[in-house]
Amino acid sequence: MDVQTYGGFLLHTGTIEEGEIKVGASVKCKVDYDRRRDVAPNHSMTHVLNAALREVLGDGVEQRGSLCNDEKLRFDFSHKKAMTAKQLRQTEEIVAKSIADAEQVTSEVMPLAEAQEIDGVRAVFGEVYPDPVRVVSVGSDTSVEFCGGTHVSNTAEAEAFVLVEETAVAKGIRRITGVTKGAAIEAIAEGKKFVEIVSSAEELSADTPELDKKAGAMRKDLDAAFMSAPLKAELRARIEAIQKKGIAAKKAALAGRVDQVLKTVKEDISAAVAEGKRALVLNVDICADSKAAQK
User: Fold this and answer.
1) Considering only CA atoms, which of 101, 95, 97, 100 is closest in space to residue 75?
2) Alpha carbon 150 to its chain's center
3) Contact present, 180 and 217 (Cβ < 8 Å)
């Protein structure tokens, strides 16, 4: 059931799964509290994420939209370019620290004019707020926003936070997707697994057979993994270094083989000339390397 406010009325939109409904019929609405317990931490963490982005990217960041459900949180904000891996890491760490610090989340309804005077209060650009308005605060100074949504009472209820994606949605608008609770814990575990895999691969010698191809397969698995976006960016760079190491070793081995083949060819040609032969056919082991063939 989707509930929205239109013209001062609460509109409930849904699908009748059984029975029927008629004009004038009475309806009893009940909150799905199990689902709300998963929605609330995602909503509260969008407030903390908003504050974190302003801390990392500057005061020019403005909210341009958001979506919070029981699976994830999505936050759109104004920024002219993609965030760097370092900026993503800093943002993720700020939100995670708020959860670890177990900050109180409180709300207060007050006159709009009074609320607008609160130092550091945040509001959505273009949004029309009621008077009086509900003000939601996280910690002593982490976040203060106008908001009528559902929230946790303490950031610790979110359990964990992972920033899983940062993309562009329009010119000058970026979108961050994050998860909390069980989904975040699973993403963290997946990240640790890949750190171990990449660390083990980094210990392999450069002349390990097909090292570059193994690194390529590892990269595909990493791209498909559900894990922290900044960690994924870091691991991509490490895998790329492994791949380059394998390719360089292949080139060095091929160059050595070509030199040995050239030496053998020269010796065979000299011997053929000395014997007065007018033709010479050789099987030259240089694989399919065109530069080696020219040499």
Assistant:
1) 95
2) 25
3) no
